[in-house]
Amino acid sequence: MRNRGFIIFIGLLFCSLITAAQVADTIRIGGQRAAQAETFYNEGISLFNRGDYQAALEKFNQAIAERSDFHQAYYNRGVVRAQLSNHNAALQDFNQAISNMPDFAMAYFARGRSREALGLDHDAMNDYSMAISRNSRMYLAYYYRGTLNFKQGLFVRAIEDFTAAINIRADFAYAYNDRGSAWHKTGNNQAAMADYQQAILLDNTLFFAYNNLGKLRFENGQYREAAESFSTALTLNPNYHHALANRAVVYKRMEKFDEAIKDINRVLELKPGNYQAYTIRGNIYYKMNDFEKAVADHTRSIETKPIFGIAWYNRGIAREMLRDPEGAEADWERASDLGVTRPEGK
Predict the structure, then answer these.
(1) Which of 161, 179, 218, 259 has the fewest CB atoms within 10 Å, counting from its CB?
(2) In degrees, to the nearest 5, what angle opens at C-alpha 82 toward C-alphas 76 and 84?
């Protein structure tokens, strides 16, 4: 999948704008106070669309003060509060919107987004399901429920949810990308490859989809094509450290050691102390027969993440090449304690 923070903001903003446009048309004037509430509400929508969230918040406050049963105003005030990262207050508004309008599907969905932001994944899952039960065409509810299923390791259920989202919105590039990752987890690399390619076809700016495609190509032994995919991801996002690390591994396999070192050094500039990057660079130095630097990097990895068994194992191999059998055996013993063992005959 991708960095989860990347879609959270987009999803909330996208949904709130669409819903605001829809619910504004349903308001009916029913007296002076109701008319004033509608005026405040519409002004709030306008301010929200301009990105003036604090002013929008005040307008929704005024609308609610005029009309306490104004479920659309509670909903949109909740959206503004969520936009301002005040998710606990947003939950109160979404709860009130649902209390006033129990079939308000978007309120369930938005409450799920805030609950997920607060780490309440189980409750968020229930909210997405409630939203779907009230509006079976809400593709974003299927999508986000799918991401939670993926997070919990329920990959078949995730595939079902991503597929439902795609069936409703055929150009949903994110859902193709994430379904590809779920297919990959189930071992269906052919389906994963097709979904990653479709995601890129629909949106060629999805740098993480190119990264995912590159990883799959690497696993298939298509090193040149994998390097090209990672390079495209980096053209779109030069600071995407995952693609830099992955390209470094590919370059190592292709014996382009200078390029590999350059990429992994850049990762460490972006992510100082990244224990996996130290181990990758240690492995590159090992392939370059610079065993002292390999030991030094694996040691840095161990210092940063003492339970990282691979670093212990690889340092043992480098120490063996430096004619330090006792050090090598000690490292391999520790690696074994951490679940990383030498293959038979080694």
Answers:
(1) 259
(2) 110
The total number of structural domains in the chain stands at 1
Q: What tens-digit pLDDT sequence spans the chain (346 residues)?
A: 653 322 222 222 223 333 332 333 334 445 667 889 999 999 999 999 999 999 999 999 999 999 999 999 999 999 999 999 999 999 999 999 999 999 999 999 999 999 999 999 999 999 999 999 999 999 999 999 999 999 999 999 999 999 999 999 999 999 999 999 999 999 999 999 999 999 999 999 999 999 999 999 999 999 999 999 999 999 999 999 999 999 999 999 999 999 999 999 999 999 999 999 999 999 999 999 999 999 999 999 999 999 999 999 999 999 999 999 999 999 999 999 999 987 644 4
Q: Find tokens 């309008």 and name the residue.
A: 101
In a domain, 107, yes or no: yes
Residues 6 or more apart whose CB falls under 8 angstroms from that of 75 comprise 19, 23, 93, 94, 97, 104, 106, 107, 110
Secondary structure class of 85 (helix, strand, coil): coil
183 residue type, one letter: W
**Neighbour tally for 331: CB within 10 Å:** 26
> What's the CA gap between 88 and 196, in Å, rounded?
36
328 located within any domain = no
Q: What is the DSSP string of 295-329?
A: HHHHHHHHHH-TT-HHHHHHHHHHHHHTT-HHHHH
CA distance 53 to 242: 34
256-264, Cβ contacts within 8 angstroms, sequence gap of 24 or more: 257/284, 257/287, 257/288, 260/284
| Exposure of 343 in the CB half-sphere (CA atoms within 13 A) | 2
If one counts every other C-beta atom within 10 angstroms of the C-beta of residue 322, the result is 13
Q: Which secondary-structure segment (H or E) carries 36?
A: helix 32-49
Is 279 part of any domain? no
Say which CATH number the domain at 88 has.
1.25.40.10
**In which domain, by residue range, is 73 found?**
1-135
Amino acid at 228: E
